[in-house]
Amino acid sequence: MLPTENRLRRREDFAAAVRRGRRAGRPLLVVHLRSRPDPHAPGDSLPPARAGFVVSKAVGNAVVRNHVKRRLRHLMRDRLARLPAGSLVVVRALPGAGQAEHAELVRDLDAALRRLLGGTTPCGGPPGNTPRKPGGGGQ
């Protein structure tokens, strides 16, 4: 579960991340990142990074959609500390995410965040150290 202070809930925050943030698309998901801090934050303290998820009916029925959201929330919880303070992240699941393996979601999320953050992996390891699909042939 994502802590309350790290949840993106307001429509305006989702819109700000999607419309004014940078985007990285992968086969299973699209990640939007707005790293500029909120100008309305009081004082010098920046709020923590917050994440929200969009999983449409194209992904599957309600059970599948909720399962995908739970998996993505779990993955983002471990990666939020690597994001700049005050940033907004929206993870939009694409139709293939409902049938994807855990390792595939990890690979796509890490690759998208790595691209948005400029070359470092969100897990803290060196670039290119993300898990690959077995039998993938190297690339």
Automatic annotation (TrEMBL):
GO terms for molecular function: 3'-tRNA processing endoribonuclease activity; ribonuclease P activity; tRNA binding. InterPro entries: Ribosomal_Su5_D2-typ_SF, Ribsml_uS5_D2-typ_fold_subgr, RNase_P. The keyword tRNA processing applies. The keyword Nuclease applies. It holds the Pfam family Ribonuclease_P. Its EC number is 3.1.26.5. Residues 118-139 are annotated as: Disordered. Keywords: Endonuclease, Hydrolase, Nuclease, RNA-binding, tRNA processing. This is Ribonuclease P protein component. The lineage of its organism: Bacteria, Bacillati, Actinomycetota, Actinomycetes, Kitasatosporales. The gene is rnpA.
